[in-house]
Amino acid sequence: MSRFLEDQILIYLGNKLQNYNLDYEILKDLAAKSEGNPLYIHYIIKFVVTNSEENKLNALKDLPDFGGEIENYYRSIWESIRGESKYVKIISILARIRGTISKSILIKMLDEDTQLVFDEVFNNLKHLLIQKMKLEFIIIHLRILSLV
Fold first, then answer.
1. Global pTM value
2. Considering the chain, what is the average pLDDT of its residues?
């Protein structure tokens, strides 16, 4: 997979994220973190689009550098959530299913405490999910499943 030049990334991120009021320094930092990898750039954009405003700026600063391998990104995500039982419960179910599932069925499979925080957790995991049919079906990216 060929990599993009930093100028190309800045233009692309600027166009894709123009509605999110990110200043140039943040875009420049994101471009540097991506090291030009198109898949990582895709995850960055999806992360910005799916996260709430109050979490976004701090979380963007904490995004790991690409580091030459996309697995580094998946590992850093797993390391940041594996101690949070509410995240692990949802990801564990998705890992076992290894296919699509409706959001309503997934919620019914969770214990009551996790059901109560489902929307918050789901919103924080959205950038890892492939959504089909207007959020009705979800599947988690298979690479992160290998870490579960």
1. 0.62
2. 78
